[in-house]
Amino acid sequence: MKTLRLGFIGAGFIAKFQALALKQVRGIDLVGVVSPNRAGALAKYATENGLGDCRVYANVAELCKHCDVVAVFAPNHVREDLIGQVFAAVKAGAALKGVICEKPLARTVAQARRFVAMAKDAGVPTCYFENQLHMKPIKAQLQQLRPQQEVMGPMTLARCSEEHGGPHEGWFWDPVRQGGGVLSDMGCHSIACAWYCLTPIGKPLTYLRPIAVNAEVALLKWGQPKWREDLLKRMGVDYAKTPAEDFATGTITFKNPDTGQLSKAQFTNSWMYEKQGLRLFMDGMGPGYAFELNSLQTPLNIFIGDAAANAVADSESALEKSTASRGLLAVESNEADLYGYVDEMEDMRDAFMAGRPCLADWSYGVEIVRLCAAAYMSAEYKKTIDLTDPATLAELETFESLIAQGKGREVLYVG
Ligand SMILES: NC(=O)c1ccc[n+]([C@@H]2O[C@H](COP(=O)([O-])OP(=O)(O)OC[C@H]3O[C@@H](n4cnc5c(N)ncnc54)[C@H](O)[C@@H]3O)[C@@H](O)[C@H]2O)c1
Predict the structure, then answer these.
(1) What is the mean pLDDT of the chain?
(2) Which residues contact 411 (CB under 8 A, 6 or more apart)?
(3) pLDDT (tens digit, 9 = 90+) per residue, 108-141?
(4) What percent of the chain has pLDDT over 90?
(5) What pLDDT does residue 315 have?
(6) Per-residue pLDDT band at 313 (split at 50, 70, 90)
(7) Which ligand 1 atom lies nearest to the CA of residue 339?
(8) Alpha carbons 205 and 210: distance in angstroms, whole number
(9) N or C, where is the chain less crowded by C-beta within 10 Å?
(10) Which residue's alpha carbon is nearest to atom 4 within ligand 1?
């Protein structure tokens, strides 16, 4: 088989971004999409851009019959139902080689484990899409610093952050549907990326053992009356009643199982970042060496003065989550590649075609959901969570943060 037939479930923001990435990937045809909205537009885009003869299917079962791999790109609150439909289709005869799920794998550890169990029961390999592990600059720094790592030892501190001014759809802001606020939505990226940077080259993604988590969450901007009203008007979500955090930060301590060496991952995530648009900032320190990555330091800046401001066409085509359309602006001319979507598609293609595991599967996704849950628990209990304590580990299995339960007022300041 030379070409993998891929189907999308969902046709929103990430589906479009992944379609953009597919323009740069060989050996994958986008052959179908299922979505209650925008499916036609996505299929048209795919066909017009030579991504494949993309059809709109009426339901998941029909889509699965015509694909080798399907990707779940739908919102978090509909995921369990959709994943159930995918595996029901497999049991009814659809010959899927693999199923992809976007981050975060699930809203709770218990739910994430159900997804893994469903895949195992159906006997279908899985792929967890965490694009930041596939970012070319992250891979390049690991490769370039390999000799230093081999002589001096692996990194002991990694700091990863992802910040922007807030998500594009109401369901992200609603902690009950999404599963929390910015920690659940973007902390999963930064925790995964920092863990990856600390991991000795060549070792599995979960080689380093997480032993402690200390975190804080806060509502710093979107709880203020003016911004709450704005949110209610634009997104239909009322932070006076069901707030979520727009800021999260924390530290995870890891232990090397062979040497006993400790390392720390710091993560910071916000939806109240007030610069040009999305910023990914990652840095890492090993003994005697370091790296630093800032996605807003682009090779291309453009300037638009007041007199020319009316001429702005589409600020979001310059930079994801752009918040300004005049002044000195950063432009990322190939975000789909920079953020790792191209490389994660290639990894998935090669893995499913060869019958080998993807870099990250759903079991790894469970670990990320578990670390996010531990971070919420730390913020809620105002203490460091000991991940070597069996009682704490048992509690995490069924933990759901107060914020995700819609009780964020008990832990967040609302102005
Ligand atoms: N890796 C990243 O950087 C990244 C970026 C954005 C979103 N995501 C993830 O991707 C997922 C989707 O986010 P998004 O931004 O595309 O959301 P979105 O709201 O922009 O789009 C969701 C799409 O799913 C469709 N949908 C809703 N219910 C459905 C159903 N029952 N069956 C099929 N389709 C359905 C919607 O109609 C819409 O087309 C989320 O889990 C999110 O966390 C990842």
Answers:
(1) 96
(2) 217, 379, 380, 402, 403
(3) 999 999 999 999 999 999 999 999 999 999 999 9
(4) 92
(5) 64
(6) low
(7) 3
(8) 12
(9) N
(10) 14
Residue with tokens 């009356």: 225
Is the pLDDT confidence value at 307 over 90? no
Give 376 Cα–ligand 1 centroid separation in angstroms. 23
Which residue owns the Cα nearest ligand 1 atom 36?
Answer: 10
User: What is the C-alpha to C-alpha distance for residues 165 and 184, in angstroms, rounded to an integer?
Assistant: 16
Does ligand 1 have an atom closer than 6 angstroms to the CB of 336? no
Name the residue at shortest CA distance from atom 33 of ligand 1: 35
Ligand 1 contacts CB of residue 9 (under 6 A): yes
Query: Which residue has 């339901």 as its token pair?
Result: 59
Neighbours of 145 (CB within 10 A): 20
| Separation CA 371–CA 375 (nearest Å) | 6
Q: Which domains does the chain have, with CATH numbers?
A: 4-132+341-360 (3.40.50.720), 136-333+369-410 (3.30.360.10)
Is the torsion defined by CA of 236, 238, 239, 244 positive or negative?
A: negative
Q: Which of 59, 70, 73 to mutate to test the pocket of ligand 1 (most atoms within 8 A of CB)?
A: 73
- Residue 2 pLDDT grade (very low, low, confident, very high; cuts 50, 70, 90): confident
Q: How far is CA 175 from CA 35, 36, 237, in A?
A: 23, 22, 9
Residue 394 CA to ligand 1 center (angstroms) comes to: 31
Please work out whether the CB of residue 12 comes within 6 Å of at least one atom of ligand 1. yes
Look-up: residue for tokens 């976007």? 102
Residue 1: its pLDDT value, please?
Answer: 67
Q: Give me the pLDDT at residue 406, please.
A: 98
Closest to 211 in 3D by CA, of 5, 392, 1, 66: 392
Q: Which amino acid is at 114?
A: R
